[in-house]
Specification:
The protein is α/β, with parallel strands linked by helices. Helices cover 28% and strands 22% of the residues. It has 13 helices and 21 strands. An eight-stranded mixed β-sheet has the order 5-6-4-14-15-16-13-19. A six-stranded mixed β-sheet has the order 8-2-1-12-21-20, covered by helices on one side. It is globular. Pfam families: DAO. Belongs to the DadA oxidoreductase family.
Length: 448
């Protein structure tokens, strides 16, 4: 099993360099959101320190499918994704590197009439945002996916969507952020965020205290733990998503596709990223009892998306709760340095068979590598992106529910603009942190 960690050697600050005593902004979390935010803050001349408890882009940011889609998103996310697509189109030029960007569209193929009607129901959202999303006929699907060999009832297609390579994108943002003066420090977690008189004043790290009046918490599945230290309850949970890379096969399409129960995108070298449709694993632990009341009303409606497992994760969780465990010694803000997340081999077998059934020409294509990632979810299926919180000076980007990779550039830019000028440039009310405390939470269109 390989984990596709981005090759970021030489980007982070050497371990023997002391941390700065004071900066303008501390970013907790060295994934795509954190690295993008560091870059855009650096462009604005802001002094930035980014802390990563393990490796830059070492978790979900390098393990995503690589879809860059507006299609089938919650209405609250569409304006952000429309703005993000605008950034993606020129991002390789701006960051001066190849990102694997292909602007060939996104297609969800309907296997039956019920599925077709479900996809078509999203057209009203697309029209309200003047998107170029259309329903394709079965013959039009075959033009997009030559050789598709199983019965289908057309599909939902957005021509302006695309794909990119997760292992390249965070790396590019990190490199450019460093060139702009940001310090990116690996193997240094945040033990807590210091607050005085309702204002963020600094961060306690594994290597000492750093003063800062603004802290961006973009720590993925650790975010709820850091916020809990501040007395903020975020009903965040995690699920496990599995992805594989294949050997090179015959050229098919550059379209990001879900069809016949498999999600896939093909790179220019002919290899595919594949996943078992939109299924995720829920490895049950005591932690899943926390905030269960937020999720319970929607679980039945979305039951087909989840595989509930009672496995070793429960014992691991129990061990981590013991005072002598490494997680307890590291503390809430760090908890687990570098979790090893096993892929679902059965699901990948299903995905590979589905790909070959749909495209018999891929008969010799085989899985070359596989990995899994911990996806941070929230009960309404949309993230928290907020820089107007209590305490003052706290900004948050978390809970992207498995579809955050495509939003990475715009999330970084939006937070940077918000912190630097006080104006995010977009209406962010539906993604505010306080919606949970206020009880203003709608049912999810999807849970990941």
């Amino acid at each position: 099993m390989n984990t596709p960690v981005a090759a970021l050697a030489g980007v982070s600050t050497p371990q023997d360099n002391p941390l700065p005593r004071e900066v303008d902004v501390v970013i907790i979390g060295g994934g795509l959101m954190g690295c993008a935010c560091a870059y855009y803050l650096g462009k604005a001349g802001v002094k930035v320190l980014l802390l990563e408890k393990s490796l830059l882009a070492g978790q979900q940011s390098s393990r995503a499918w690589g879809f860059v889609r507006q299609q089938s998103r919650d209405e609250a996310e569409v304006p952000l994704m429309q703005a993000s697509i605008g950034l993606w189109r020129s991002l390789e030029r701006e960051l001066q590197t190849d990102l694997g960007w292909r602007n060939d569209g996104c297609l969800f193929v309907a296997g039956n009439e019920e599925e077709r009607e479900g996809y078509a129901s999203w057209l009203s959202v697309a029209r309200s945002f003047s998107m170029n999303t259309v329903m394709l006929s079965p013959s039009e699907v075959l033009k997009k996916l030559p050789g598709y060999a199983v019965p289908q009832h057309g599909g939902l297609f957005t021509a302006s969507d695309g794909q990119a390579e997760p292992t390249l994108v965070a790396r590019a943002f990190a490199m450019r952020a460093r060139e702009l003066g940001a310090q990116l420090v690996e193997h240094c977690g945040a033990r807590g965020i210091d607050v005085a008189a309702g204002q963020v004043v600094g961060v306690e790290t594994e290597r000492g205290y750093v003063k800062a009046k603004t802290v961006v918490c973009a720590a993925g599945v650790t975010t709820f733990r850091l916020l809990r230290l501040l007395g903020i309850e975020l009903p965040q949970q995690l699920v496990r998503g599995t992805v594989a890379r294949t050997t090179s096969g015959p050229t098919l399409s550059g379209i990001s596709t879900i069809a016949n129960g498999v999600g896939f995108r093909q790179r220019l070298d002919g290899s595919f990223n594949i996943a078992d449709d939109a299924h995720v694993d829920v490895d049950m632990t005591l932690g899943h009892l926390r905030a269960l009341h937020w999720y319970a009303p929607s679980l039945w409606a979305h039951r087909k998306s989840f595989r509930f497992n009672l496995n070793g994760a429960c014992l691991t969780d129990l061990h981590q709760r013991m005072p002598w465990s490494q997680a307890s010694r590291l503390g809430e803000g760090i908890h687990e340095r570098n979790p090893l997340i096993k892929p679902n081999e059965k699901g990948l077998g299903t995905a590979m068979r589905a790909l070959k059934a749909a495209f018999p020409g891929q008969v010799d294509t085989q899985i070359a590598d596989r990995w899994a990632g911990a996806i941070d979810v929230l009960p309404d299926g949309i993230p928290v992106i907020d820089a107007q919180t209590s305490p003052r000076g706290l900004a948050i980007a978390t809970g992207f529910c498995g579809h955050g990779f495509a939003m990475g550039p715009i999330v970084g830019k939006t937070l940077a603009d918000w912190i630097d000028s006080g104006d995010p440039g977009l209406d962010m009310r539906q993604l505010r942190l306080s919606r949970f405390a206020e009880g203003d939470v709608k049912p999810p269109s999807s849970l990941f």
